[in-house]
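hey
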């Protein structure tokens, strides 16, 4: 099996069976973002406590790249400090620029091929941009 096939399967698995899909009943930082270029929409919710992302969930609609990226991101940042989550977002930006990067949560690397399709980079980065905005918002509220 080629790496591209494996990556495609990982992306489709997150798209068809998204992790952390839904909303919180309790209080959470909520960010709504959209990508007007292709119609992707996401609402990211995070519960941040004592400088840690205690939990993250999302709802939205869009392409397989956008929604699988949100699924991967919410899974990867759970339990991480704000600094670790922002560092992951920086690494993801590097991945989208075609730079070699390794993630502790390996599924994210399945999105490495997206950089070959510039129009799709915004799809992949939508949830990561929401993560950054959510962290900024939570820090302003403290």
């Amino acid at each position: 099996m080629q790496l591209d096939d494996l990556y495609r399967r990982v992306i489709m698995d997150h798209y068809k069976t998204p992790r952390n899909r839904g909303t919180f009943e309790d209080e959470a930082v909520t960010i709504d973002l959209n990508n007007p270029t292709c119609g992707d929409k996401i609402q990211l919710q995070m519960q941040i406590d004592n400088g840690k992302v205690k939990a993250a969930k999302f709802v939205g609609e869009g392409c397989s790249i956008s929604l699988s990226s949100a699924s991967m991101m919410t899974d990867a940042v759970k339990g991480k400090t704000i600094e670790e989550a922002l560092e992951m977002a920086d690494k993801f930006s590097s991945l989208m620029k075609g730079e070699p990067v390794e993630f502790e949560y390996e599924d994210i690397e399945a999105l490495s091929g997206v950089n070959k399709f510039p129009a799709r980079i915004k799809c992949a980065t939508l949830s990561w941009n929401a993560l950054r905005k959510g962290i900024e918002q939570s820090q302003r509220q403290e």
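The radius of gyration is 14 Å. The CA atoms of residues 131 and 142 lie 17 Å apart.
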